[in-house]
Write a structure and sequence with these properties.
Structural class: alpha/beta
Strand order of the largest sheet: 5-4-6-7
Helix content: 40-55%
Radius of gyration: 23 Å
Distance between the termini: 92 Å
Strand content: 15-25%
CATH topology of the domain at 57-151: Rossmann fold
Shape: elongated
Number of helices: 7
CATH architecture of the domain at 57-151: 3-Layer(aba) Sandwich
Oligomer: single chain
Number of strands: 7
CATH class of the domain at 57-151: Alpha Beta
Length: 197
C-alpha cells in the first residue's frame, strides 16, 4: 500500500498552525513528502506526524499551589501518555507550581527560551497561561514552534478562584503603592525646590 499525501495547506489546518509554520516544518525536515513540478508541496498524511529525529517535544504541567502536587504529577503523566499516543518522543517534562497569572514562572520562562523545543504540550490553555496566550502562540509560530493544547475546555474552578484572589491582591497592592509613590514624588519635588532656592 502506497504512502498517502496531503497538501501542505491541509497539513497546516490539521495541526492548527499557519501555512508559514508548516512551510518551515517542510524546509527543516520536520515533515517529509515531495514537491511537484508545479511547486505544490505534498507531505505524508499520517495522524502521527512523521517527525525527524531532531524534532523535540516538551510537556508542561502546572498547578497553583503545593497542596495540588498529586494533581500535578497526574497531569504530567496524562501529557506524556498523550505524547506517546501521538508518536512523539518526549525530550523534556516540566512541572511547575505557581499562579497562571504569574508572568515570572521560571520553569515556563526557561521552556519558552529553549528554542530546541519544537512542540510544547499542555492539557488546558489555562495550565499554560491565563492571559496573552494568542501572543505567545504567534511568537512560537514565528519561530516554527507550536503550542499543542490537548483539551480546549477548562473548568478548574479552584484554580480560577485562586487566580481571582491573586488579581484582587495585586490591584490592592497597586492602589496603596500608587498613593505611597505619589507622596514620594511630591516629597522629591519639594526637596528639589528647596535645593534650588
Amino acid at each position: 500500500m502506497g504512502q498517502k499525501y496531503i497538501k501542505l495547506s491541509t497539513y497546516a489546518k490539521k495541526n492548527c498552525i499557519t501555512y508559514k509554520t508548516a512551510y518551515v516544518h517542510w524546509q527543516e525536515g520536520i515533515v517529509f513528502g515531495k514537491q511537484l513540478s508545479t511547486g505544490t508541496i505534498l507531505v505524508n498524511d499520517d495522524d502521527e506526524v512523521v517527525l525527524n529525529k531532531s524534532f523535540s517535544v516538551a510537556t508542561y504541567a502546572r498547578v497553583s499551589s503545593s497542596e495540588n502536587k498529586d494533581n500535578l504529577n497526574k497531569q504530567s503523566d496524562r501529557l506524556v501518555s498523550y505524547a506517546n499516543a501521538k508518536g512523539y518522543k518526549v525530550d523534556k517534562i516540566v512541572k511547575e507550581i505557581g499562579s497562571g497569572l504569574n508572568d515570572e514562572r521560571k520553569k515556563l520562562f526557561d521552556l519558552l527560551s529553549d528554542d530546541t523545543i519544537s512542540i510544547i504540550i499542555v492539557e488546558h490553555k489555562d495550565r499554560f497561561s491565563r492571559f496573552g496566550l494568542n501572543y505567545i502562540n504567534l511568537l512560537l509560530e514565528k519561530q516554527g514552534r507550536k503550542l499543542e493544547i490537548i483539551n480546549q475546555v477548562s473548568n478548574d474552578n479552584e484554580d480560577l478562584m485562586q487566580d481571582f484572589v491573586s488579581i484582587v491582591t495585586s490591584f490592592c497592592a497597586r492602589i496603596y503603592g500608587k498613593r505611597r509613590n505619589k507622596r514620594k514624588t511630591e516629597e522629591l519635588i519639594k526637596n528639589l525646590q528647596n535645593i534650588s532656592k
